[in-house]
Design goal:
With about 575 residues, this protein is α/β, with parallel strands linked by helices. Among the domains are: about 170 residues, 2-enoyl-CoA Hydratase, Chain A, domain 1 (Alpha-Beta Complex), CATH 3.90.226; about 240 residues, 2-enoyl-CoA Hydratase, Chain A, domain 1 (Alpha-Beta Complex), CATH 3.90.226. The chain is about 45% helix and about 20% strand. It is built from 22 helices and 24 strands. The strands form seven sheets. Strands 11, 14, 16, 17, 18, 20, 21 and 22 form an eight-stranded mixed β-sheet that branches. A six-stranded parallel β-sheet has the order 9-6-5-4-1-10. Helix 4 packs parallel to helix 5 and helix 17 packs across helix 18. The longest helix is centred in the N-terminal third of the chain and has 36 residues. The protein is globular and about 90 Å long.
Length: about 575
């Protein structure tokens, strides 16, 4: 007994000491961050803004220094995340600040949607109007990054590097055979011939309708990429296509220069000598001064305070009715209502990057936005996605902006109820019970639908679809028949959506802000972002415990994390859904 008590006490003391050390380390991290958070960057003359094109591109930056610590502890490289909001703001600062003489694009494997990358590309084109230079270097260029850097005055690549130019491909993972082996049947009710989100559970390959829509919108995206590269590099589209057919990444690097895709083959230590040729006032022997992303973000904003505000509301991720990542409908509704009541807010830009989700949540957001629109101009800006539920919450905007490569539309809904009777039979589980009414045990996962249950579910989904169509028709000032003709769950690019009336203008976030200012007739204003970003201390205290599992999964699974997340979140899919396919992967 004494030995037991001794070991128990030792264990308790050990746990206490470990917890105390962990707490001290955490507060050490917090103290270091807090000590550096307020330090503004003072730019020196002849500085070059360096954008490292590595990691993941997201709509909004979020301070998250703990990810690096977790990655280091697990022996993994830390994941870099770049906020599109920061990049666009920093490029604008670099354009206006006389201390910045140019931009250096370094890297080549930033992961992000084509529409978001185009926003950066457009900002770089605008930056060049200032007469300042852009130089790019990478050991290897991914296809999307080459599209981005093709605006540069000079594109450099390592003599042994790779430039990816091969066209686009898309794949969807199908689970039907796996579900069949497990004895699970996914019972689907839907409206929309093109509504393909349920296909992975009931098919082993793409339906003809889905193959058609994916072929069309991928062709549109690829053609836009080619046209813009062609304009920047002065290479005909036909030649770019022929180069893509050669699979450029496996061709000798010299070919990339021969074809005019790049301007020079240099090693990384030779880049400075190229950059120095652009910095005219640099004295002989002086080193270049680079300002990286984090430092550039801390360059003070020179905009003067103004009582008039333009609200920029972000809606990013899948739409859910419960807590979690993405758009939690009740939280977004509260944000919208707060903006509606704020008399200082004169106009609103609603930025959407969402593949959809809960139909019920989408309706609640629509209702809140409709009330806001009655009081203030509401301009919608679409990011990489604003489809299905994402379009539901966009359709009532006074004007809708999309990039040519934005994925939108997908006006259709579905419901999925699993039937696990086959699995029960395999493992010997049986059920018995009592009920008070005919339908008391309706929609059970332990047996197939009865014909009456299927009819009820189909009627429920049909009503949801009719409401979705009506919302779109009212918002776009079209007849329901016109919406139905382009609905059926079909996905469109922003370019094609403009032709059929689902969006009003091709443009990015800055274009939407400009129009909102015009609508509100403002001569001066400040941008106010919603929901407000949490500072590191708040985020740490609120999320440290529940974030541990997510952080570790992201680090360990890498690119496969999204698949893990899809499976993990299946239990959160409540009610009817308005969303894109779960795992359409465009490469």
């Amino acid at each position: 007994m004494k030995q037991f008590l001794k070991f128990t006490l030792a264990t308790i003391v050990g746990v206490f000491i470990a917890s105390l050390l962990g707490l001290l380390i955490s507060f050490g991290i917090i103290g270091a961050i807090a000590g550096s958070a307020d330090k503004a960057t003072a730019l020196k003359p002849n500085s070059i803004y360096q954008i490292d094109l590595e990691g993941n591109l997201v709509d909004r930056s979020q301070e998250d220094p703990l990810s690096g610590a977790f990655a280091h502890a697990l022996g993994k490289p830390s994941e870099n995340t770049i906020g599109l909001d920061d990049v666009l703001a920093n490029i604008e600062k670099a354009k206006k600040d006389d201390n910045i003489v140019g931009i250096y694009l370094k890297g080549g494997s930033l992961s992000g949607g084509v529409a978001s990358i185009k926003e950066i590309r457009n900002a770089l084109i605008d930056f060049k109007k200032s007469g300042k230079f852009i130089v790019s270097y990478a050991d290897n260029y991914s296809q999307r990054m080459y599209y981005l850097v093709s605006v540069a005055d000079k594109i450099l690549i390592n003599p042994q590097g790779m430039l990816e130019l091969k066209g686009l491909s898309a794949q969807t993972m199908f689970f039907k055979n796996t579900l069949d082996k497990l004895g699970i049947e996914m019972q689907v009710v839907k409206v929309g011939t093109f509504k393909s989100a349920v296909e992975p559970y009931v098919n082993t390959k793409m339906s003809d309708a889905n193959r058609l829509q994916v072929t069309v919108f991928m062709g549109s995206i690829w053609n836009n990429i080619l046209k813009e590269i062609s304009a920047s590099r002065k290479i005909p589209v036909a030649k770019l296509n022929s180069y893509a057919d050669e699979m450029m990444m496996f061709q000798p690097t010299e070919k990339s220069k021969q074809y005019g895709l790049v301007d020079g083959l240099v090693y990384i230590d030779q880049v400075d000598s190229v950059l120095k040729k652009y910095v005219k006032s640099l004295k002989k022997g002086d080193d270049l001064t680079f300002v990286k992303q984090e430092a550039m973000t801390k360059v003070p904003d020179t905009a003067k305070y103004d009582k008039n505000k333009v609200a920029l509301i972000y809606a990013v991720g899948e739409i859910t009715d419960i807590e979690g990542d993405g758009i939690v409908s009740r939280d977004l509704v509260k944000t919208i209502n707060d903006v509606e009541k704020d008399s200082a807010v004169k106009a609103v830009v609603f930025r959407i990057s969402s593949p959809g989700g809960s139909a019920y949540g989408s309706e609640q957001i629509w209702h809140a936005l409709n009330k806001l629109k009655a009081k203030k101009p509401l301009i919608v800006s679409m990011g990489d996605y604003a489809a299905s539920g994402g379009y539901y919450i966009a359709c009532m905007g006074d004007k809708i902006f999309a990039q040519p490569t934005t994925i939108t539309g997908s006006i259709g809904i579905f419901g999925v109820i699993p039937n696990i009777k086959g699995l029960d039979d395999k493992i010997g589980i049986t059920y018995d019970g009592v009920k008070t009414n005919k339908m008391s045990d309706a929609i059970s996962i332990n047996r197939p639908f009865t014909p009456e249950e299927r009819d009820l579910m189909q009627s429920y989904v049909n009503r949801g679809y009719e409401l979705f169509v009506k919302r779109c028709a009212d918002g776009r000032k079209m007849k329901t028949e016109q919406i139905k003709a382009i609905a059926e769950g079909r996905v469109w690019t922003g370019e094609d959506a403009l032709k059929i009336g689902l969006v009003d203008k091709i443009g990015g976030l800055n274009d939407a802000i400009k129009l909102a200012v015009e609508k509100a007739k403002l001569k001066s204003y400040n941008i106010k972002e919603y929901p407000e970003k949490e500072d590191f201390m708040t985020k740490f205290m609120k999320n440290f415990g529940k974030d541990v599992e997510t952080r570790i999964a992201k680090i360990q699974l890498g690119e496969q994390y999204n698949l893990f997340k899809q499976v993990k979140n299946l239990d959160k899919v409540n009610g009817i859904q308005a969303r894109l396919p779960y795992d359409l992967n465009i490469r």
